[in-house]
Amino acid sequence: AQKVTQAQTEISVVEKEDVTLDCVYETRDTTYYLFWYKQPPSGELVFLIRRNSFDEQNEISGRYSWNFQKSTSSFNFTITASQVVDSAVYFCALRSDYNTDKLIFGTGTRLQVFP
Amino acid sequence: EAQVTQNPRYLITVTGKKLTVTCSQNMNHEYMSWYRQDPGLGLRQIYYSMNVEVTDKGDVPEGYKVSRKEKRNFPLILESPSPNQTSLYFCASRSLQGPRETQYFGPGTRLLVL
């Protein structure tokens, strides 16, 4: 069975601190996709990134970076120099590659960035 | 502008009264999904569709129906709503898999079943 665990329920930081959100997944599939989403206080869901299981290269987008490690089944998300606008709930998710669109989410991590 | 629309945004109903939440996308996407969000449980997929007339169950399909007669629309039907279906519902769409996959979500529908 597939599973995504986000053990950090809530994280609080002060602006300009770096913060890492953890995501650990379980799957028996050899090919799969991992995702991160952001849900700001306004409630909408925003797709941030998709990572293929066969591409372990880390990705950076501005202040955001993602570290995918197959050996530890982790796909962690780091925000560098956090800002108040980064305050949101962040979800990690997993999807198999085998003719399905089934998406399994973690329970989310609430990040609060204080000025 | 690329978007996914849902209606209604808010709905209060009573147990057993059939309702439909509509979802429409303007991006010609093949894939569409419905999710529900509940405190402490995160997001759970209800149903998904990989194309017209192709639908399949997600993690929590009980009590829900869907149909995909046209590519742009993917309504969620609650034939006999119950209080445990009180939740925040999101519709989503995405393009076929590829290096530039992007997903779009609707604004959400908050449902209260009394």
Layout: helices, strands, pairs:
The complex is a heterodimer of chains A (115) and B (114).
Chain A: E1 3-5, E2 10-14, E3 19-21, E4 24-26, E5 32-39, E6 46-52, E7 59-61, E8 64-69, E9 74-79, E10 88-96, E11 103-105, E12 109-114
Chain B: E1 4-7, E2 10-13, E3 19-25, E4 31-38, E5 42-51, E6 54-57, E7 65-66, E8 76-78, E9 87-94, E10 103-105, E11 109-113
Parallel strand pairs in B: 2-11
Antiparallel strand pairs in B: 1-3, 3-8, 4-5, 4-9, 5-6, 7-8, 9-10, 9-11
Describe what you observe in this structure:
The complex is a heterodimer of chains A (115) and B (114). With 115 residues, chain A is mostly beta strands. Helices cover 0% and strands 54% of the residues of chain A. Chain A has strands spanning 3-5, 10-14, 19-21, 24-26, 32-39, 46-52, 59-61, 64-69, 74-79, 88-96, 103-105, 109-114. In chain A, the strands form three sheets. In chain A, strands 2, 5, 6, 10, 11 and 12 form a six-stranded mixed β-sheet that branches. In chain A, strand 8 (64-69) and strand 9 (74-79) form a beta hairpin. Chain A starts with a strand and ends with a strand. Chain B is built from no helices and eleven strands. Chain B has strands at 4-7, 10-13, 19-25, 31-38, 42-51, 54-57, 65-66, 76-78, 87-94, 103-105, 109-113. In chain B, 38% of the residues are buried.
Give me some keywords for this one.
heterodimer; A: 115 residues; mainly beta; six-stranded mixed sheet; 54% strand; B: 114 residues; globular
Task: Give the low-confidence spans of chain A.
Answer: none
Give the overall form of chain B.
globular
Order of helices and strands of chain B: EEEEEEEEEEE
The radius of gyration over CA of chain B amounts to 14 Å
Outline the low-pLDDT stretches of chain B.
none
The number of distinct helices of chain B, counting runs of at least 4 residues, comes to: 0
Number of strands of chain A: 12
Task: Label the structural class of chain B.
Answer: mainly beta
Radius of gyration of chain A: 14 Å
